[in-house]
Amino acid sequence: MTGDVPAAGSSVYAEIDLAAIRSNTRLLMERAAPAQLMAVVKADAYSHGATQIAPVLEQEGVAAFAVARPTEGVELREAGITTRILVLGAPLPGDLPVCAHHDLDVTVSSLEVAERVRDYARVQPLRVHLKVDTGMSRLGVSPEDVSDVYRTLQKERRVTVGGVWTHFATADAPGHPLTATQRERFDALRRELDLPLSFHTDNTGALLTGDGTLPSPEGPASQTYPSYVRTGIAVYGLAPTSELSSGEVASKLRPALALRARVTHLHTIDAGTSVSYGATWTADRPTRIATLGAGYADGYPRLGSGSARVRIGDELRPVVGTICMDMCMVDLGPPDSPLARRVEVGNAATLFGPDGPTIYDVARWARTIPYEICCGLSRRVPRIYTDGEDSEDEANR
């Protein structure tokens, strides 16, 4: 969709397709079975709008949600979400009352955290998941210390240990030996603990590549332990990398997010005229320039300067000069070209979306990953939610 869509007071807007979210969720739940889906909705559901997306996912039957910080979980509770929510990050001392009050599961990532949880639970009950560091070296209890940490938690009956989990560092690189090593370490720990808990390991990369712990339906019962698959970016229709996007499952995902910007100004420049900060691009012919009302403050990365293209008037055209905070400029071609004559102020251009360029393209131009492009979308960008033929503009709710 590249036509004009109302988004009051803004020259840039994002479209989020709820039908795509539903389709992706059903596909991922089918792929994850017999494990259940824990939908990761941190960072405002990867900029898709957590309070709009989570109810859709809850209706689809996801088993749990995951967020990075307690404030994100509180936002979901205040939006009416009743499904279990796991806070993935390590809690600060002041976080425990918030988690207890809003029924958020706490991640225990060290003996110190376990002791704080045990002590606070004498005031209010807490439910926790124990995080094990099997090779990511970012957060978690070392495998050899898990038993001691678990015993510390068990000293207070008002602490409920709901699960044990780890996070793969290289699951988006098929066949990487570290994934197998992490899986083996975690599986050995699971057998050693021999407890009736939820054990979960797999993230989006593991789910899409099959390199995680998910069993085949024909596998022995001893392999069927993953109770959850924690899936984030795939819910929104993307693979962790462009290389994985053509896989059997990833190729069926439907990207839900598009970023559009309106033409706010049109002018013609002569050959030899430079454009934008730093004069990094100079026209080699008379050129019709369209200024779009979107820039890096909206989440369109400045690092894409010199490489990026946008879709305007059904053509892919280069972004020229340096991408600015609030604007970027597009070469429409010679002033007498069909496109240059057709484009008008107010027309919309696609910066990224299912109709192209894709988020993978923008990530490549900016030398980053799809996650950063999604999560970088600014809050000042109005979100327009579509679902079939219906649409709802967040700015006009």
Describe this structure in words.
The protein has 397 residues and is α/β, with parallel strands linked by helices. It folds into two domains: 18-238, Alanine racemase (TIM Barrel, Alpha-Beta Barrel), CATH 3.20.20; 257-386, Beta Barrel (Lyase, Ornithine Decarboxylase, Chain A, domain 1). The chain is built from twelve helices and 19 strands. The protein has helices at 18-32, 42-46, 50-60, 70-78, 95-101, 111-120, 146-154, 177-193, 204-209, 338-342, 359-365, 370-375; strands at residues 12-17, 36-40, 64-67, 84-87, 104-108, 126-131, 159-165, 198-200, 228-231, 257-269, 274-275, 281-282, 287-292, 309-312, 315-320, 328-331, 348-352, 383-387, 390-393. The strands form three sheets. Strands 1, 10, 13, 14, 15, 16, 17, 18 and 19 form a nine-stranded mixed sheet that branches. The chain has an eight-stranded parallel sheet with strand order 8-7-6-5-4-3-2-9. Strands 11-12 form a two-stranded antiparallel sheet. Helix 7 (146-154) links the parallel strand 6 and strand 7. Helix 6 runs parallel beside helix 7 (146-154). The radius of gyration is 24 Å and the shape is elongated. The model is unreliable at 215-224 (pLDDT under 50). This is Alanine racemase. Residues 256-386 form the Alanine racemase C-terminal domain. Belongs to the alanine racemase family. Pathway: Amino-acid biosynthesis; D-alanine biosynthesis; D-alanine from L-alanine: step 1/1. It holds the Pfam family Ala_racemase_C.
